[in-house]
# Entry
Amino acid sequence: MSTPSTHISIRDLSVSFESQPVLKNVSLDIPDRKITVIIGPSGCGKTTLLRALNRLLDSVDSARIEGTILVDGEDIYDPKTEVTHIRKKMGLLSQKPQVLPMSIFDNIAYGPRIHGLAWGPDLEDLVEASLQRAALWEEVKDKLRQSAFDLSGGQQQRLCIARVLAVEPEVLLMDEPASALDPISTLRIEELMQELKRNYTIVIVTHNMQQAARVSQETGFFLNGELIEFGPSRRMFTEPSDRRTEDYITGRFG
# Structure
């Protein structure tokens, strides 16, 4: 069996806020076109990791970042690297659906218009294709000019996924993507993840151990800002090598 290629390589990543460490010397390789899940108790640094990957920490004056993050071999914190280039490559999906106060169509078209990716008929095709990939097209194709706020919570989350896909990213970063959804909508999102991994590298943060075991191929367990264990999900959820990982997965703490 061939080893999956590395898409994101993180080396000695440390992040602190107001001199308080949040991530401590984290190193891991995230494989290409796989689902990697990040688990751990609240406050362990999971969301900070996603924000570091997307360079959203740039706007936080108190944040100090050390170490290296390579995406396709490119150092995303190199001064020569354009932030907009990285954020286009690394699409971030928030925990709560954050639709824009505009129509369904304009929500999807917003990013491509800003990045100059498509106009006119090409833009219409891109919107349709993005909604297709997010498994939402059949549900909204006759109401594209209606407000995005008319959609259900699960539909809004898939709309946000479509909006991310419209700018043609390589990586999807998902922060608790189904935590605010009902079980049926959660299942739709999980099924969608399995479809999307064929073309995208996916990194998910979740507190849901059952979901983590269901959807992922690789798992990283964080505790107090440190990466305790990282490896194939099947092994992590059945025979973790660290007692702290086992205690967390089985609900002894967290």
Observations:
- Strands lie at 6-17, 20-31, 35-39, 63-71, 74-75, 90-93, 171-175, 201-205, 218-223, 226-232.
- The longest helix spans residues 120-133.
